[in-house]
Design goal:
It is built from five helices and no strands. The chain is mostly helical. The longest helix is centred in the first third of the chain and has 23 residues.
């Protein structure tokens, strides 16, 4: 998907968002067993409004290190609401 750029302000804003996501993805690729890397990716995805993907990464971090408080907190924060569990199509991107 290509997005038309409406000027330097748009491009600068996208670059500010894309870089952390790219770096977090690289961390996970280089350190797949790192709970911290998956948690960083969860935060980056959440910042982009990609709640379902962020939730999966937070759960992965928690599965890798069950006592990791940061992962437990983010997984709980991103847990589906009652409405989302009843209607999976209603899951908006929560931040």
């Amino acid at each position: 998907m290509r997005v038309a750029c409406s000027g330097s302000r748009c491009c600068g804003r996208w670059a500010a968002i894309a870089r952390p996501l790219r770096e977090a993805g690289s961390l996970c690729a280089n350190f797949p067993g790192s709970a911290q890397a998956h948690l960083v990716l969860a935060y980056a995805l959440n910042d982009l409004g990609r709640a379902d993907e962020a939730r999966r990464e937070a759960y992965e971090a928690l599965a890798l290190e069950p006592e990791y408080a940061g992962a437990a907190f983010k997984a709980a924060e991103l847990a589906p609401t009652w409405d989302e569990r009843r209607d999976p199509h209603a899951s908006g991107g929560r931040a």
